[in-house]
Amino acid sequence: MVLAEYLALLEALGGGKVARRGNRVGAPFPIPPHLKPALLAALEDGEALEAGGLLHPYRLAAALHALSGAGAVWLTAYEVPGGEGRRVLTQADPAPYLRWAARSLPAPVRVHMLSPDWCWSLDLVLPFEAALELRLEHMTNWAVGPEGRAEWLLQGGWVTPRSVTVALKGEDWQAWEHRNIEAALAWWEASRVRRVKREA
């Protein structure tokens, strides 16, 4: 799951700096070529940031959109939980707007993106602890947020995906693909037990 690969990359970069010069990316170690578009989308030309800065919700949205292959999206940003969202229809490449928003607007607690053709969606909610990819008949849904929220999305029964991929920060963002939601939830419970044992 490219979503989890990108989150694992940011984790591996730790406090290291990432810089953009034109179409080149400078980092403490070589960046996998298929993840380079995400960093180009998240950074302004000439900009250098610590990797943690790339987890700003607007910058993460720009990066993940670049990896999705989607075009224009309906973007809704929420500055307070349960508050009114700011909604805009972006250009085919929303990265310039999202980079501007990261510099100029209050950091949102949630960012939601939906392609107008309903083929792809992204839901980002702080804190970033779990990642989901739900593949439906004609749509791919990505979600990154608290473990409890991701588990709630799986338990909701609102979709019957063709496949479910789950990655947890506590498992180093390693992605696990499952045939159905029941298998994903069983894996989740086993992961919880493993992590409790590690911490004991």
Fold and architecture overview:
The radius of gyration is 17 Å and the shape is globular. The strands form two sheets. The protein has an eight-stranded mixed sheet with strand order 5-4-6-7-9-8-10-11, with helices on both faces. It has one domain (2-72, 86-199). A hairpin with a 6-residue loop joins strand 10 and strand 11. It has 200 residues and is α+β, with helices and mostly antiparallel strands. Helix 2 crosses helix 3 (57-68) and helix 3 (57-68) runs antiparallel to helix 4 (95-104). The chain has helices at residues 2-13, 36-42, 57-68, 95-104, 147-155, 181-199; strands at 17-21, 24-26, 48-50, 74-78, 85-89, 110-114, 120-125, 130-135, 140-145, 163-168, 175-178.
